[in-house]
Fe-S cluster assembly scaffold protein NifU (Fusibacter ferrireducens), 132 residues
Amino acid sequence: MYTEKVMDHFMNPRNVGEIENADGVGEVGNVKCGDIMRIYIKVNGDIIEDVKFKTFGCGSAIAASSVATELIMGKTVEEALKLTNKQVVDELGGLPPVKIHCSVLAEQALKAAIYDYATKNDLHYEALKDFD
Ligand code: FES
Ligand code: FES
């Protein structure tokens, strides 16, 4: 049912924790399952130089957050905003259909963290217009 990569990121999640004095924090919850995901980012210039997450949720949500942090580490904010849940799922080698929403949570938490950063720094990104 789960790929080896999902199991690996669930058993050994990368970048777990929080960042003190993070430049942006995003938290999203899924009303259906009650799972909660929080992502912290540290931005230097335009580069996401650190990202950490805490997920109170299912294994797929943990694996999705873990992979998402790896995918955006070291990227520019603009690049990170292009991350989609599909990319997260592909990177994991697939997720069962009922678990797709777990990867959506990762995309949303990341966008929420960047939105928080953008708001604090009076920056505007086209990809975030839905948040306004
Ligand atoms: Fe039970 Fe997500 S609903 S683990
Ligand atoms: Fe809800 Fe995975 S079951 S995030």
Notes: The chain has one domain: 4-124.
